[in-house]
Amino acid sequence: MVGHFLIGFVLLAPVIVGATTQQIHDVDFNNFEYPWRRSHIPSSWHWLEPIPQSHVRLQNGHLTLDPTDPSHSAYLQLQSVSYGDLDGDRQDEAVVDLVYGSGGTANWHYLYIFKSVDEIGVPIGILESGSRAFGGLVSVSVSQGLVVLDFADEGRREGDCCSRGVIRVAYRLQNGRFVETGRRQKDSIRFAIYPLSKTGPQTVNTRVDGQNVNIVYTDAKGVQKPLTSSGVNTQPSLSSDKSWVVFLRELNRRESEIWAIRTDGSGLRPLFRGPIRWDNGVHPSSSLRSPQWSADGHVVYFVTDFTHTAGALWRLDLTSRKATVIIPDAVIYGVLQTGRYRGFLIANQRSLSTPDSDGRRYPVYPFFLYSPLGQKVRQIGDESEDLEGLLNDWEDR
């Protein structure tokens, strides 16, 4: 087993790392040698000291550590590169995020900070994150000379994989080391939990057909009818009268569209295309998620995710084809189909928590009841509530 992880290592002199360059922006970090040593599964984040003497080389942003068994091998993958002046010399440093996959369920990150010294890209700091919900690295930014990192908050984790919250930590380069500065902050991420697909008569699902993902409707007699025949079609939602399906059609990694089709297979048409214009910015249509019909079938709602903390719930009027934001910072939602509140929405929205033991508040995502136009009625549950349970409860009222 040890031999497997040594495949791909290049033992080099410890001083020179990387390629000759006059500016750190010129370095091709997709094809680059990184100091690295494998460790046991980490339970939190920490800076590696000293910098490892062994090295690995990425090719096209990836390295399979056991090329004899690539389907089960551990790997390294380039996630992102950020730039900023961290030492005040008016020259940018590079902050490079690599994710390490263990070949199993565990994965964590290695964050490298490189400086251009005598035309050589030299590592001046390496951080190893925790694994997944146990202090895994969620996001990286450089702001005002600081490296600002969001780590998964173990105290708000959902199983081993994920956490509802992050702990934001800022580091300053001081005397050759990265030192934590300022107070740690808590924040919440847009934690989307998708409901389980329903089966049986008059339900809609997806089916993988080779490289295509198609929409399949099961009619009242239990007969399955494919509604699409090509492309990647996902997240279908059935209208209350069972006559229409709305779904996402993914064109590529940056483009998705909202489409609709009748359950008899007719009427296939696009309803909404990007890009998404919101808050004085333009965002790719890959941010589209979770289209659903209104109870009367005249409107389609959908969510957009712009960052791991920012997004919105939209209302698309099918007569005017105008889409407007009705609930900023909503993440998951459902439309009440029966009962006194038919047509109303239940959604969780970014809000401030009650004060903690230190008197500090941080964002959380409790559930609220909204009118069909997005007016808030009242809070009906905290962020740990189950959306499906709330929908069932309020449809019985």
Structure description:
The chain has 397 residues and is mainly beta. The chain folds into two domains: 2-188, no CATH class; 203-395, Neuraminidase (6 Propeller), CATH 2.120.10. Helix content is 4%, strand content 50%. It has two helices and 34 strands. The protein has a six-stranded antiparallel sheet, with no helix packed on it. It starts with a helix and ends with a helix.
Task: Break the fold down into its secondary structure elements and pairings.
Layout: H1 2-6, E1 9-11, E2 33-35, E3 46-47, E4 54-57, E5 62-64, E6 75-84, E7 93-101, E8 107-117, E9 120-128, E10 137-143, E11 146-152, E12 157-158, E13 162-163, E14 165-174, E15 177-188, E16 203-209, E17 212-218, E18 224-226, E19 232-238, E20 244-252, E21 255-262, E22 269-273, E23 276-278, E24 281-283, E25 288-293, E26 299-305, E27 311-317, E28 323-328, E29 330-335, E30 345-349, E31 351-352, E32 363-364, E33 367-370, E34 376-381, H2 387-395
Antiparallel strand pairs: 1-4, 2-4, 3-9, 5-6, 6-7, 7-8, 8-9, 10-11, 11-14, 12-13, 14-15, 16-17, 17-18, 19-20, 20-21, 21-22, 23-24, 25-26, 26-27, 27-28, 29-30, 30-33, 31-32, 33-34
